[in-house]
Amino acid sequence: MSTAEFFDKNMLNKYNTTGPRYTSYPTALAFNKAFNEADFVHSVSRLKTTKIKPSVSLYLHIPFCHSLCYYCGCNKIVTRNQDKLAKYLSYLKQEIRLRATQFPGFEVSSVHFGGGTPSCFSAQQLNALLQEARSSYIFADSIQQSIEIDPRQIDLQYIDELRDIGFTRLSIGVQDVNPCVQERINRVQSTDFICKLIARSKDVGFASVNIDLIYGLPSQDADKLANTLKQVNRMDPDRISLFSYAHMPSLFPAQRKIKDEWLPSSDTKFSLFQQSITTLCNQGYEFIGMDHFAKPSDELSLAAKARTLSRNFQGYTSDQSDCLLGLGVSSISSLGSAYAQNVKKLGEYYKAIDGLQPLLEKGLALNDDDIIHRAIINQLMCNFYVNKAEFSEKFEIDFDAYFKDCLQQLQPFERDNLVTNNSDSITIRSRGRLLVRNICMSFDQYLMSPAHKLRYSRVI
């Protein structure tokens, strides 16, 4: 694959503004505290009436980490206290049971453990959660079970144990292999051991292994990144997620440990981005969406080719479930016509499970307009293409009339030859692919709020 067509530096600089990543639409900034448990139940009930055999994915949030990675903006609690972990395990099992009563007849198609660091739990503890879920929900025969792991705190045997209890997919945080970069983000780890972990995962039958990489980290330069990408080739993962480091110390206090002068310039960061995409494509990976890569035989690549790729709070996915149920402190659920987020503080979460306060902190009930705009943003983010006739038929609208104002906002991208908009379709051209977030902002009805604009990272 030739990647040169993606990198029109003038265009990328012109549109390098802040914007949402669109793991949901509307984004979490539109959620409100008026949303309550009755709204949650109503949204699930709507799914039951519209689907003969509704499906659900489970996301279990494990908020604990053994140490603090300075770049991270996730909701996490740094601790090694086993009593704290055991208490959370007990309460999470209770929430699994509580929510199950609202999802009778739903078939679970996938389970994902995210964090934080799920591998701070032993395989036995994780199995206890899985068994609780299995006894509370209907699991599909071909269910996918995935987990994020920290290679600094496990041994090779842990991989065998995860496979024995049914996990089929792994995600490993690599970020960068250079010791200087690792020290400055407080994440020093062994590249050799990660290679052994991935090799062992393949030996015991994991279907797919993902690694995370970040460009724009402190002290990162072309030579260091080249070595990281060389080591990635040696690791031979099935999937790679490539993320831009968003330095927002006012929002994420841990990032204050990273000095501004350590960070690459905007020009260097752009070069690192181009270097990453070009190298990974030359290594044989398919470029998926705006920041994922997968081997041609991987389900993510197959979904992209079939235009069945989707997007949720974890990023691009081949999962086609009707809804996502988030379990655990701060977890977000996507319920078809609504989003709902659990309380964010651990103490409040425990009180909620004990019945002393509401479990939900905020959420949003979507109207028909939200659902239609979500659909077009999802199609553009995943497929870079929308068939107007098919879209109009599905939602019973006149496409050009319905999106009249949005299409006017799209015109600058058309003039810059980033987008083609004709009577039949909208297509994001190769040179506009890396600006897909900007293009989707043309269809975002919530961006007028100044508060929204201040909370997003830059698109490059």
Question: Topology, pairings included?
Answer:
Elements lengths: L8 H6 L22 H14 L4 E8 L1 E2 L11 E2 L3 H19 L6 E9 L7 H14 L1 E12 L6 H9 L4 E7 L3 H6 L6 H13 L4 E8 L6 H14 L3 E6 L21 H17 L3 E3 L3 E3 L4 H8 L3 E3 L2 E3 L5 E5 L4 E3 L3 E5 L3 H8 L6 E6 L2 H16 L1 E3 H8 L3 H4 L1 H12 L3 E3 L3 E4 L7 H6 L8 H5 L6
Parallel strand pairs: 1-4, 1-13, 2-3, 4-5, 5-6, 6-7, 7-8
Antiparallel strand pairs: 8-10, 9-10, 11-12, 14-15, 15-16, 17-19, 18-19
Question: Which descriptors would you attach to this protein?
Answer:
single chain; 460 residues; alpha/beta; three-stranded antiparallel sheet; 17 helices; 19 strands; globular
Largest sheet properties: 9 strands, mixed
Q: Roughly how much helix do the residues carry, as a percent range?
A: 25-40%
Question: Mean pLDDT, as a whole number?
Answer: 94
**Uncertain spans, ≥5 residues at pLDDT below 50?**
none
Strand order of the largest sheet: 9-10-8-7-6-5-4-1-13
Question: What is the percentage of strand-forming residues?
Answer: 15-25%
Molecular shape: globular
How many helices? The count is 17
* Cα-based radius of gyration, to the nearest Å: 22 Å
According to DSSP, the number of beta strands is 19
Structural class: alpha/beta
Distance between the termini: 21 Å
